Amino acid sequence: MEFQLITKDTKSRARAGIIKTDHGEIETPIFMPVGTAGAVKAVHMKDVYDDINAQIILGNTYHLYLRPGLDIIEKAGGLHKFNGWNKPILTDSGGYQVYSLSGTRKLTEDGVLFRSHIDGSKHQFTPERVMDIQRVIGADIMMAFDECTPYPCDYDYAKKSLGITHKWLDRCIEHFNNTDPIYGYQQTLYPIVQGSVYNDLRKESAEYIASKGAEGNAIGGLSVGEPAEMMYEMTDLVCSILPEDKPRYLMGVGTPVNILESIALGVDQFDCVMPTRNGRNGMLFTKNGIINIKNEKWKDDFSPIDPEGTSYVDQQYTKAFLRHMFVAREMLGGMIASVHNLSFYLWLVKEARKQILAGTFAEWKDMMVPRLAQRL
Amino acid sequence: MEFQLITKDTKSRARAGIIKTDHGEIETPIFMPVGTAGAVKAVHMKDVYDDINAQIILGNTYHLYLRPGLDIIEKAGGLHKFNGWNKPILTDSGGYQVYSLSGTRKLTEDGVLFRSHIDGSKHQFTPERVMDIQRVIGADIMMAFDECTPYPCDYDYAKKSLGITHKWLDRCIEHFNNTDPIYGYQQTLYPIVQGSVYNDLRKESAEYIASKGAEGNAIGGLSVGEPAEMMYEMTDLVCSILPEDKPRYLMGVGTPVNILESIALGVDQFDCVMPTRNGRNGMLFTKNGIINIKNEKWKDDFSPIDPEGTSYVDQQYTKAFLRHMFVAREMLGGMIASVHNLSFYLWLVKEARKQILAGTFAEWKDMMVPRLAQRL
After folding, report:
1. I need a labelling partner for B318 at 20 to 30 A (CA). Which of A62, A374, B147, B207 fits?
2. Strand B24-28 and strand B15-21: pairing?
């Protein structure tokens, strides 16, 4: 993997760049739609390609490991072959789902013992195992195995957890270096900065992670319930330490406003279930604010979903029709909202990139943030 | 509406024709995808147009009347404007759902009193009211209000019910003739033959319906649980009486085999929830037979869903991937299967039409029927 930094904004730390992988290039800043089980929820693959214009999608290691399972993915020739997505894929380490989904789990220095949320079967994730799993999945970008601390998290726990995360990182790197890609294309490994909301821990972690010289670096453990200002403060601190010539990935973030604010702090990659999950609940993000389409006020609004939207669905369907789909509990409602929201997120980062290249990002961001946050 | 009979098969009663409506032409025989609440379930409108190549879709009067309601549909300018489908639409009379869905209903000579299955509110459908509702929906083809008798149904009930259906038909026709379309394009009314599985009642009904000189005629009360042979026998009898120069619509039918057998008996129009409903349960219809994609045997079959299929999904996704979507309970599974099945149904009637035009329908049908019925 290669990262080319093209422009740095002069009034913020925003940057425009290009990540080059064996599955193609990614223009940064970029939003990566989440494809939990190997497919973006409720969206046809052709729409992920052609309508949403995604450049990279994310797969969840925990989910893919349990279903369809590594045997099937390896037989298929990797996740790209299995799901038909021929552009870059990033996989998380599975850690987050182990903590949030599995019924029982036991954290030790060695790794995590857990039970499947599907059938209760017992499994163990260790740093080495998680590297092996991501080799089999065949992600272009693999993530280190870490502990994502919750919020709030007391200082002592955060410090102890960080120690484990760093030790696990060294084991991840060693095992990654001692193994080869299975499918003939390169894979890369991003380490993850943790440290909860504590400045000294975040600083320590960012310095430790930076010292590893990875091709890209991630910031984890944020957007887990802490106030947005705290998230920005931590992101700011970490971005000031992580190397400038490598992409920075802020995991699990966030709202359109979160994304613009974090781009301004120097983040290049984002992922979040919000556009699809909230979409399935009737929340639409637009450049003029947020629509709850289930609201009575849209029942006879026959204007397009988003007259300025870039997606097919924005012009094809009216607000009144989409509201009707949600009220009647038709799957099509969630399908439409998912395509709309993902198209909007991809538009947002593309436009941010344009503004960075034009030297107008800071002003544009200040104009957009209040618009994006308002309720329509 | 106009019907042009183009070719009659010499070895069966199959016909190829064209129905001309103000929203465009329909090549018969045709299958009409069901759009219960105004949209085909789990399928984007662009795919109904471009991938499935539907020529006409069906809306359910009962559902649309309750949600979004007539006020919204009228404000939108009719269902075509509301849902963005600019080709022909047929609506049923709502009777079938009143009997099958609503909690309590009371049938009188005047009409049916029923409670909404959604909120328990009280409503009345009469022949006149149902004509008014379909005027507001703006269907190109409206259906007469009838009682769809269940199976089994004793002779006395069937006879009495038929009397009511015929009286209601006269009231429908009178009210239809005394009212005008609301949106500036023509609408037409199909009467419905009933009579359960009794030859004399079916004959009486077909003769009565034929005497009305409608622009198209429907056969109702079949495919409600009776053996297929009985359905064919009734269809055969009724088709021999209904005028040859008008399209014949066999309501709620059926499997691919049912459709080919009924085309051979002289039917021109079909609708059924089977391709979408069974699709959402993992059943795929193909020209080589029926696939239960949830079956273990497909878990590592990385061949396309249907190598000979005409739809985008047939080539984009593999059987193993589609099975994974169903096992992981992803909406995308039902979405893929719905598009596949509808594309297949539309291919089937298009191919049947080609064979009729080529004079080879009977042989082709005999070759296809055993293939279509087998389990893969």
Report:
1. A62
2. antiparallel
Q: Which residues does chain B have within 8 Å of residue A316's beta carbon, measured at their own beta carbons? A: 44-46, 84
Residues A154, A265: Cα–Cα separation, whole Å: 26
Read off the amino acid at residue B77. Answer: G
Best CA proximity match to A43, nearest among A346, A335, A342? A335
Q: How far is Cα B375 from Cα A292, in angstroms, rounded to an integer?
A: 45
CA-based nearest residue in chain A for residue B49: A316
For residue B192, give both structure tokens: 């419905």
**Residue-level pLDDT at B101:** 80
Q: Which residues contact B326 (CB under 8 A, 6 or more apart)?
A: B282, B293, B294, B333
Low-confidence residues in chain A, pLDDT < 50: none
Residue A307 preceded by cis peptide, ω within 30: no
DSSP string, B307-367: TT--SHHHHHSBHHHHHHHHHTT-HHHHHHHHHHHHHHHHHHHHHHHHHHHHT-HHHHHHH
Q: What is the mean pLDDT of chain A?
A: 97
Phi, psi (deg, nearest 5) at residue B6: -95, -50
Q: List residues bridging with B188 in a β-sheet.
A: B141
What whole-number distance in Å separates Cα of residue B75 and Cα of residue A330?
Answer: 22
The tokens for B20 are: 């001309």
Does A332 contact B at CB distance below 8 Å? yes
| Amino acid letter for position B3 | F
Which regions in chain B score pLDDT beneath 70?
A: 103
Q: Of A51, A271, A306, A314, which is the active-site residue?
A: A271
Contact: A325, B75; criterion CB under 8 Å: no
